[in-house]
Write a structure and sequence with these properties.
Length: 254
């Protein structure tokens, strides 16, 4: 049986994240011999989501190599995965740091999303068929299940993917690609700064949008989508008191 230093595994939000099934392991501080870069990326991502590695924390290659007992080459590969998923930033000549999106970045991301998703909402109402509504109803049931279980990673993945499902229904591949990129950035912001209460409100707003769309009320559906994105943005808490500078080894082994 494998064992890793962090007792959480990430399986959330935007498409493109590693999707391997979690590896079973006891709550020990033993490290599996020669874990893959993918395994390491999952573990560090889980620590970020759990706020064991707060925004701004430096991820030192040598410390990670010590924790996982692997080469720094493999650590660099894991860090590149995390960077691609926007959970960390790699700064030339300085190192890797846990992403620290601020209120201004959130404002800009959601401003663009509100423009795109107003058009998306209108197109969705025009194109959605009964089968599309059944698929999204099933997705909304999964959202509620994740919220009730307290599964933060799955909750955030599903809340983000709801918007991708709408775009896929419309069938515009360019719009879908743009929304995937914006959703990835939004996902990092919400997983760090959104409360469980606000996440529950987001799911309720998804339901309200779908009900308006189901009745063919285009104007109400568009208004609900805009209000939803505005609510998500304004509810983000950027003063949560997470302090950077935690000892990396301690954080991963705790």
């Amino acid at each position: 049986m494998s064992a890793f230093p962090v007792p959480l595994l990430i399986d959330w939000l935007p498409n493109g994240f590693p999707s391997r099934q979690p590896l079973p392991r006891p709550m020990t501080q033993e490290v599996q011999t020669d874990p893959s870069a993918d395994d390491i990326a999952k573990e560090v991502a889980a620590a970020i989501v759990a706020h064991k590695l707060p925004p701004g924390t430096r991820l030192r290659e040598e410390a990670l190599a010590k924790v996982y007992k692997v080469s720094r080459t493999k650590i660099r590969a894991a860090l590149l995965m995390l960077s691609k998923d926007k959970l960390i930033n790699i700064v030339p000549d300085k190192g890797a740091f846990v992403s620290k999106p601020d209120a201004n970045e959130a404002r800009e991301v959601y401003a663009v999303r509100r423009i795109l998703e107003a058009a998306l909402a209108r197109e969705f109402v025009a194109h959605a068929k009964a089968a599309d509504f059944r698929r999204i109803d099933a997705h909304l049931a999964e959202e509620r299940k994740a919220l009730d279980s307290g599964d933060v990673q799955t909750r955030n993945r599903l809340l983000s993917h709801f918007h991708i499902l709408l775009a896929e229904t419309v069938g515009n591949s360019v719009l879908t690609g743009m929304l995937r990129e914006l959703s990835a950035r939004s996902a990092v912001i919400t997983v760090l700064y959104q409360s469980s209460h606000d996440a529950s409100c987001s799911s309720q707003e998804h339901h309200a949008f779908i009900e308006a769309a189901r009745t063919g009320d285009t104007e109400r559906a568009c208004a609900l989508m805009d209000e939803h994105l505005q609510h998500v943005q304004t509810a983000l808490n950027f003063s949560g008191g997470h302090q950077a500078g935690n000892d990396l080894v301690t954080a991963l082994l705790s």
